[in-house]
Structure formats: C-alpha cells, structure tokens
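Predict both folds.
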Amino acid sequence: MMKKILPIVFMCLCISAPVFALDGNEMLKKVDRHLNPESFEMYRKLINIEPDGSKKEFVMYSVKKGKEKIASVFLSPASEKGRSTLRIEENMWLYIPNVGKPIRITSLQSVTGGVFNNSDIMRVDYSAEYDCKTVEPADDGHILHLKAKANTVAYDSVKMWVYGTRLLPSKLECFASSGMLIKTLYFKNVKDFGGGLVRPAVIETDSPLYKDYKSVIIFAKVNAKDLPDAVFTLNYMSKVESLRQ
C-alpha cells in the first residue's frame, strides 16, 4: 500500500512546485516593465479634485531612463509652464525659471498639491525602492507585500494587487512605518499604447489623511525613447521641453 501512495504524493508535490517557486522580486520587476519600457517618454494630465468638486489640472511631459532616473516639465497651466523636476534615485529637485537654480525637494512634498506626493508623481521602478517579502494568492492574481529598502522611501510598506499573465497592478495600499494606511492607489482603464505596451491609463488616489480629496493621473502617450544620460542632470532641467517632438 505504501509503495502505491508514495508515487502519488511525489506527483502532487511536482504539480504544486511552481506555486511555491514564485519569486516576488522577479514578479515586481515584471510589473515595472509591463507598466513602462526601460527608457521612455510620456504625457500625463494630473487632476486634483477638492471636496466641493472644484478641480485644478496640470499637464506634464516626462522622460525616464533605467530604474531610477526621471525628469519632467510642466506644459500647463500657464502659472506652472517651464517648471521642471528631476529625480535620481531618492534625490529630487524642482527648477523654477525665474529662480534659475534647482531647489532640493523631498518625496513626501508635492509639486502639484493634492493627494499625490513627489514620490507618486516622479515614480521610479517599484523594484528600485522595495523588496518583495511575501506573495499572497488572491482571487484573480497575487498580492505582493513590499518593504522599503531604505527609510528615505515615501512609504515604509506597500501591498500591491497584481492580476493576469501580464502582472498589471490593480490597487496599491501604502503604509507608514507605524502601520497606518497613508493612501490607496487604484489602477484603471487598461489601454494599448502601441509597441506591445498594454497598461492602465488612469491612476486614482485617495487618503484617509485628506478626507474627500482625490487626485487622478491620466496617461495620454507612453513611447519608448532612447535618452542620453546628460538629460538627467541639474544643468539640463531648463531644457527638458526641448526633447518633445
């Protein structure tokens, strides 16, 4: 009897092996690449919505290279036009034309106000900021439990819901080191941007810290683009808009 049972147990273990072989950090890297090419340009509209329903809108052109470099310039409104931002790893700067000198800013500040902070707006790869500690099965995919690699990261931990073979995110819950929920991000409206890139075109966020406030980012274009390293320097911040074609 025992001889008959052992082969069956062995077969069950072999069938189950891929489930236990899931590597959370490899999954997180795939999420990054499924969201964006490694080097690309994009246009975004950021909308801040007040509790009374009033809105303030910003349009930005951004370029990103590798895991930890992103530069952006405001195209509108007129009061913001020409302002640019630069992020290299955890270092962030804001350039204001009539000031002429880049100013250091932090991840928890916001260059647009509203619920999105600079870390959300100047998003680098998630795998650059976080390690995946555990992977939990969910109804239509997985939940990745992420822990910040350094205490300079905006959120101490993140729960990321991903689904489908493309491992696209559907929701993120962002927590402080105390365990308090800071905000929730919702990824919506999956769109084909061309070039094999299929990803959510809308990110919405709300926060228990900003009751009845809401912010939305709408992606209009995301295109692969080769970019020289010189673009991601303080000296180039006044020229980011020149990259537009």
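Second protein follows, with its predicted structure tokens after the sequence.
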Amino acid sequence: MNNSVETQNRDQWSSKVGFILAAAGSAVGLGNLWKFPYTAGMNGGGAFVIVYFAILLLVGFTLMLAELVIGRSTQLNAVGAYRKINKSWGWVGGLGVLAGFVILSYYSVVGGWVINYIVKAATGAFNTTDMDVLGNMFGGLISSTWTPIVYHGIFMAITLAIVIGGISGGIEKFSKILMPALFIMIILIVFRSVTLPGAAEGVKFFLQPDFSKINGKVILAALGQVFFSLSLGMGCMVTYGSYLSKNENIPQSATLIPLLDTGVALLAGLAILPAVFALGFDPTGGPGLVFITLPAVFAKMPLGALFAIIFFLLVLFAAVTSSISLLEVVVAYVVDDWGWKRSKATTIVAAAIFLVGIPASLSMGPWSHITLFRGLGVFDALGFLTDQILLPLGGLMLCIFIGWVWGVDNAVKEATNNGKVKFAIAPIWGFIIKYIAPIAIGYIFISGLIG
C-alpha cells in the first residue's frame, strides 16, 4: 500500500452539477434503457413501477447515502475506504473492485452490440418488420467470432479515453456533455412514441397500476432492478464519493441521483412501451425488446430510420456513462494502492478487461458449448457471479459495516458535515440500514442463489 499516493494530489469534482451528472450517469445505463422497460413489461407494467418506487425510497436512497458517506469520509478508493475505517474490512471494498472489473468485461460486449446497431441504423438495415429476420440479424451478430470482439474493443477504447483524463478533466467533462444529450434524445423518442396512433394503451399499461398483479415475483424483480440500476454494491459510489469536497451536501446528492436515474428509467418505458403497443408488438418480449422488437417498431414508424439512430446513440451514451464509473472503481484502487500513474493504470486495466471480455463474447457463438457452472456459458456465468453473488454480498456487507461496525452515528456525522447539513430522517435512515435493508438484500441474495 502506498499511503503517500493515497493522500497526495487527489483529483476532485470541480462542481456539484458535474458530480451529480457523473454519479447519475454511473447509475443510468443499460439497466434503465434495456432492462427496465422489458422488466416492467414482464411484471405487470404500472404495478411494477409502483413497487419499484417504494423500494427505491426504502433501499436505493439508503445504500446510495451509505456509499457516498464512506467515500467522502476517507477520500480513498473502495478498498482503502473500508480499510481506513476498519483494517479487517478492506475485503468488502475488494468485492466492489472485483465486481467492477468483471461487470465491465461483459458490459463492454453489450456496449459493442449497441455501436454495431448504430451502424446498422445509419445504413438502413432496419427496413423490415419481420421478427424472424430481425432475430436472425441479432443472433448473427452476437454469435459471430470477430465482429462483436472488434466492437467490444471500440467500446473499451471509448471508455479508456475518457477515464484516462481523470475526474474533472475526463469523467466530469464528458458527463456534462453526455447526460444532457441523453435527456434531450430520450425526450425526443418519448414524444415520437406517445404521439403514435394507439400509443395510449401502452401509456396506460406502463403507468396505471393493476395492484392485483403485485406478488412476490414482482417485488423481487423490482428489488433487483433498484439495486443493480443504481450501481450499488460495486464500489462506484464509494469511489465517486471519495472525490467530493468536505462541504458537499451528501443527503441532497443521495436523493437527486436516484431520482435522476429513475426519471431516465420512466422515460425509457414511455419511449419504448407505447410504441410497442401502438405498432402491435409484444411488451413482454424480454431481453430482445431493444435489439429485436424495437428495430421492427422503428421500421413501421414515420421517420423511423432517424429515430432508430437517435435511440441507439442514446443507449450508447447511457452505456458509456456507466462503463466509465466501472473502470474508475478499478483504476482508483490501482492508483491509490499500487502507486501507478493514472495513464498506466487505466491502459493496463482496460486492456485486461478487454481480454476477459473476449471469452464472454465468444461464448455466444464459437464457444457456446463451453459451460462453467450451472450449465452457464462464460457470458452468463460472469453475469451470475456479479448479479447474484458479488453485488448483493457487497450491499449486505455495506449495511452491516455502517450499522454495526463503523456505527450509524459516525455515518450521520459525516453525512451532515458535523451537524452543518440538515438530515431530518437520520434516525429512520439508521433503522433502515441496520435492519430493513439487510433483510431486503439478503432476500435478493438467497433468492438468486437458490433460484
């Protein structure tokens, strides 16, 4: 460990807006634009949205605040932050660093698919509404050997180029461009979608809850979506929090970030589901909704080719704002603890992640016969490792660490800047992080392992 490197010349966010946009960008990703609409579609639409909101307020805000507090208090990477507060707990931060590394290895593969689909949209490939043709188009892409690896490399190169510039000069600078652009594009798509003839049914399905559809499956789906959508349990918010000044109002930030993230998720639902309904497609289409169903929707939509390009650019921007935070988690650890320069750390870590992503990509095609455990290929096995083990375990340990090791009083002291910032619900937050959140996350963890 290099203590002098940990404390010297640490970069900081240059503005509150920059930090909020970067942190919201970390949370806003493929989970919002790809997973949220189809998860809502498969879990009763409005019923899912209501449950999602309730869990967001209960668990999302609680963990977001907890991670930001640990990061800001210590001004260190995920491993160093836990270790500084309690030497025997550095391994919890290590879970986050490992999760960031593994997630980005396969996330980048999906990011590559998105770039490929921007090219397809721009060259007029989506000129058919035949679901078999579109399904074969997507299947042909992900199962081929070299094309997805090349696009995976392009996506990682974009991520590396931003992170190598540092916090204020790289991540913050690009987040200030990408996030407003993302909001403008998604609002354009929403306007086009909800004004299609017959779109009202899709709006009704998405926003009008049928409470009879709320069951254990819907609650578990919403719980998982909140947890993974907000980048919790993977060290992102601990790392981003470590670049905050001691004057920052953390409770306010921990409220704004989940609200912005949820705003994008809701807009994504309004961008996708009304159009799917209006043009007669299946809203419960699952993961293929973005890559198979939506191209058919754009083919039937007036000015569809233009909106297809805008949509996939939007998805790319969301993917990049998340990927830079995942890479930063690992880079911050290597810079702080190993004493490497940022340029060296970013380049070598990004190259290693790219290499791990190659077998994940090949597992969709030439290596599809290779399974690791539970009959899962490399791509799905890496997803299982992060989604079902590393993230819930990291979140569970975060709650135990704040509630029972560091102590709620110390966390509240840091969150309120020693009483200078109002945090009226501190007692409720303390109760949730000690008792409610661990039970909720434990439920995700056990359900994922036995499911």
